[in-house]
Amino acid sequence: MSEIIRSHGFTNESLDWDAWLDVVELDKATPEQVAVLEESHPKAKTSDYYLFLVHQPEILRQRSAAFNAIMYAPGGMPRAERELSTTVVSRINGCVYCASVHAQRFEQLAKRNDVIREVFDEPRTAGTTDREKAIAQFSIALTETPGEVRPAQLQALRDVGLTDAEILDLIHSIAIFAWANRLMLNLGEPVFPETVAAV
């Protein structure tokens, strides 16, 4: 992270997340739960989010497989653009935690954060290029009015150079964050660094 950005309650800082409901205690987890945690994410065994979701290990297994395929699969839309899209979706949905994580991922991949500041300040005008602006606008449209996307909006993405495969990746990224944001927003809350330091 080259600089800390805080705007409208959003940040690119690393945040913790606390579950509001009971999480699975790792020393009491079943072998299946442990296996699912291990295949889900490198930090799953210490994350309240994963330790709560593993109450239903098969759902977490399927969720993690879909998430990882959508966000990390090679080819198609560049990963930085997937991260930009999911940061926009998280900003629109009000998911501070997801926005922080994916803002950091964008910066790691793109080696810049200018567009992240724009997303946090005003997502509707965000984008340093026509392609980024089109990605942000489409991410907002699909998030706010998912049943109203029309062919002209897909053509606008093609007009800035997205291939059909990249458009599909973009839609997958936006869609899975409708799910991810709702889990994070309704099962717990983000914890800012100064809150952790004060405890």
TrEMBL record:
PANTHER family with a match to the protein in the record: CARBOXYMUCONOLACTONE DECARBOXYLASE-LIKE DOMAIN-CONTAINING PROTEIN, SI:CH211-175M2.5
This protein's UniProt keywords: Oxidoreductase, Peroxidase
Protein name per the record: Alkylhydroperoxidase
InterPro entries for the chain: AhpD-like (IPR029032), AhpD_core (IPR004675), CMD-like (IPR003779), Uncharacterised_peroxidase-rel (IPR010195)
Naturally occurring in which organism (per UniProt): Pandoraea anapnoica
Superkingdom of the organism of origin: Bacteria
Pfam families according to UniProt: CMD
GO molecular function: peroxiredoxin activity
Keyword Oxidoreductase appears in the UniProt entry: yes
Ranges of residues in domain Carboxymuconolactone decarboxylase-like: 57-136
